Amino acid sequence: MDVQENKCTDLVEKTDTKNADQRPKWDNKAQYLLTCIGFAVGLGNVWRFPYLCQTYGGGAFLIPYLIALVCEGLPLLYMELAIGQNLRTGSIGVWNSISPYLCGVGLASMTVSFLVGLFYNTILAWVLWYFLNSFRNPLPWHHCPTALNLTEHIEECKQSTPANYFWYRETLNISPNIDINGGIEGKLVLCLAAAWCIVYFCFIRGIETIGKAIYVTAIFPYVVLTIFLIQSLTLPGATLGIQNLFSPNWETLKDPRVWLDAATQIFFSLSLAFGGLIAFSSYNPQKNNCERDAVLVGCINSFTSIYASIPIFAILGFKAQTNYLECINSHVNTWAVALNISDNNVTEASYELWFTHLNSTNPSFVKEHNLKMCDLNAFLNQSASGTGLAFIVFTEAVTKMPGSQVWAVLFFIMLFTLGLSSMFGSLEGVLTPLLDLHIIPKRIPKELLTGLICLVSFTIALIFCLRSGNYWLEIFNSYVGSVPLLVIAFFEIIAVVCVYGVNRFSDDIEWMTGRRPNLYWQVMWRVISPLMLLVVFLAYVIVEAQKQPTYKAWNPNHVDFPKAEDQPYPSWVFNICVLLPAVPCCLIPLGVLYRFIQLLHKYTTDRNTPEAYDVET
Amino acid sequence: MKMITRILLLIFLPSVIARDLCKDGKDGYKVRLSIKTALGDEAYEWNESEMFLFRSSLAFAMRKYTQRETFDISNILVCNETKRVSFVFVVTSPNDSTKLIPKDHVASAVRQHKHRINSAFLLSDGTLEFVGIPPTLAAPITYSTQPWLIVFGVVIGAVAVGIVSLLMSTMTRRRRAADKGVDSGQEEEQMEGIVKGNGTSLTRLESKDGVYNQAFSNDERFTKL
User: Fold this and answer.
1) Helices H, strands E: what count in chain A?
2) Per UniProt, what is the membrane topology (chain A) (predicted)?
3) Where are the alpha helices (DSSP H) in chain B?
4) How many A×B Cβ pairs under 8 Å?
5) For residue A551, what are the CA distances in angstroms to A316, A471, A473, A554, B145?
6) How many domains are contained in chain B?
7) Structure pTM?
8) Looking at the DSSP assignment, which residues form a beta bridge with residue B86?
9) How far apart are CA A436 and CA A585, in angstroms?
10) C-alpha dist (Å) from residue A75 to A72, A294, A487
11) Which helix (H) or strand (E) holds A452?
12) What is the pLDDT of residue B208?
């Protein structure tokens, strides 16, 4: 007996360690932290936060932003990391463990991660295209290309700006509206393929390769941001831009939209509800201080947003200053030509005096030439967010700097690495649940599975390479990457608080970290975060529902060109806009229904088959 | 007396005619120079000598354009000079000083040699303007291979090498693991079998004591309801 028992325990121990080894794990804590930070810190930190900060009264915006971080961001982040670390499975396994009726939440997470990965990598393909073109001298978006007769520039470019022309015509070759599909753009397909190859190369063995790649992709953006910070502060007009960014306008705090935008910005910025964070922490050893990790990741994400906005706005201030001087020069030229004033008599300092003098003495001349006084503030307020900031505004600013190729290359590599580390999170949100579902036969190596995921994503993302692709990307961006995430996060926190129980959760955390979550976490999880999520979700839906479903089209034949044309979505496109968020959200009630049907089925079969050991005495 | 008036007339007539030809302005072009804008502190003074240089460079342009007719400074007539520095010029034919060279010929001549004229004055297309003669823009550079394709090739090549090397290392790792599996014998196989068979119950053992035994806790929930 003894010998047999020993043999049994030996086998059990060996299988234990074997199973523990079978789940991949991080090489060290730094990899895990850098991956979470890389996932949270993405393109939005660079091109959405500075825009919001400037629009909503600069320094004053930091108040709702930090309140949202404390009340909504950190508690949800801590909850996701803790639950992944505790239950050691991806998003589907985690919610399935808490309650089988919640299997839909995990599926919804996986679907949203997949859809977001599709369009996010297309943005990276565009970044790659710009990176490849930054090696030309002069930069291709610096001057308008000449028309065939060599006497003037191309009309479309003359009416707008070279940077606009390069983005809309030479890169996207955009069609005038979403109905016109146009053909596929070959160069974009090549860049998309390259982007997916690079992602595959880093993602090929899951966290084994991600953990190595993250050292570069997470740290490099900070290096480049610091270089830009130092360089931008030396440019003229930089202080103007920074003043414009941070000068607080306390009036904006009265507008509820500011609070809504702050809450949504924090939520989307931390990449919650994707399932990626749960996946990453599931590879941790169970005895790990996830509280410190959560606070660290959340604070570093917000710090990066603020840190990135300084060089961005310094450079935008420089651009505004340069445009202002150019405007003055062109006005001076017009006057000098028409009124025969000796050149260099009008300088920048005397410009305003001359303009007012001219306006009073010769108003017809001013009207005839459509001269509006050059206003520095108007130039400063010409900010943009999203792809407009990166590919139009910033590229224009870069052409005015000395050594523009270097800055362009650095900027686009920074954007690429920022986006790449966020892609890892999305793809892990797809891969880990798939592996945990055990539907993939063990014969298929992980490399093949990741390759298949990348291939399928690339094929579907080819729609973004059509001439109307940018319009479709905007649809995906606004409809998929917003409402479903809020819904999933709400169900997540309800699952933990109501179904699992905060007390049980706190016990688990005490076992993992050695410390019970304190009063702040308890209050946030039980009351404030769910309430805040619900309010934000309802407010967001109401605000979006009130907006007309229109999009901005680039139509050279439009009357107001170069202003974008506001076009309504055709009905078939609008149906897709509604379908895209509806599909992941519907997976949640469908999951409940499926389990209920399973239960009924089991109940009826149990009743019909007699009990095997039913002994009646 | 009559001789003197006739001689005086002959002397002044060309200049009178010249001024008339120039002032008629139909075949003339207005020229605008912005020397101070272009050169700033190093701007030179516009005087008679500079005008002489202008007229001679224009005569040079006309000579090169026609390639046979010998234009001279006297064929370039200037009027309407202003302090801004702008003036109007016309070109007369070398054979007949009363005949003007038509506008389009002058325009083509200027366009072909604008660069030389600009360089003579250290100016550029923007600062030495011929009103009505648009400057020839630089022809777009055509590449045999697009420059972005070259960088693309480098990037894709590096990534492909990386992927292939990773896949090779995976295959060698698997082959080594398979060899080790064959060597260690039957015990390993038995354990493999147990692991695959009861995956759920054993994976949960390493966590807390019996709380997450999925196989059992799931059943409990079903039967309760």
Assistant:
1) 29, 2
2) Multi-pass membrane protein
3) 2-24, 35-39, 48-66, 103-112, 114-121, 147-184, 186-197, 199-203, 214-224
4) 109
5) 26, 8, 11, 10, 37
6) 2
7) 0.83
8) B32, B82
9) 22
10) 6, 8, 16
11) helix A446-461
12) 47
Question: Are B166 and A205 an interchain contact pair (Cβ–Cβ within 8 Å)?
Answer: yes
List chain A residues with CB under 8 Å of B190. Answer: 11
**Pairing, β B29-33 against β B86-91:** antiparallel
**Same-domain check for residues B124 and B194:** no
CA-to-CA dists, residue A37 to A227, A285, B173, B187, angstroms: 20, 19, 31, 44
Q: Locate A20 and state its tokens.
A: 């523990």
Q: How far apart are CA B185 and CA A255, in angstroms?
A: 73
In whole angstroms, give the CA distance from residue A31 to residue A281: 11
Which residues partner with A552 through β-bridges?
A566
Nearest to B162 among A145, A201, A343 (CB): A201
Taking a C-beta distance cutoff of 8 angstroms, is the pair A183, A466 a contact? yes
Residue A291 near residue A509 (C-beta atoms within 8 A): yes
* B70 Ramachandran zone, left/alpha/beta (phi>0; psi -120 to 50): beta
What is the domain range of residue B103?
A: 2-130
Q: Are residues B12 and B106 in the same domain?
A: yes
**CA dihedral for A420, A426, A432, A435, sign (positive or negative):** negative
Domain boundary among B130, B157, B182: B130
pLDDT digits 0-9 by tens, A128-172: 999 999 998 889 999 888 877 777 788 888 888 899 999 999 999
Give this complex's ipTM: 0.80
Share of chain A above pLDDT 70, in %: 92
Same domain, residue pair B19 and B115: yes
* Interacting residues of A492 by C-beta distance below 8 A, sequence separation 6+: A76, A79, A80, A95, A105, A273
Work out the average pLDDT over A473-492. Answer: 91
Q: Which A residues in the span 60-89 are in contact with B, Cβ-Cβ below 8 Å?
A: 87-88
Cα B102 to chain centroid distance, Å, stands at: 34
Cis status of the peptide bond prior to A145, with omega within 30 of 0: no
* Chain A interface test: which of B83, B141, B151 (most A C-beta within 10 Å): B151
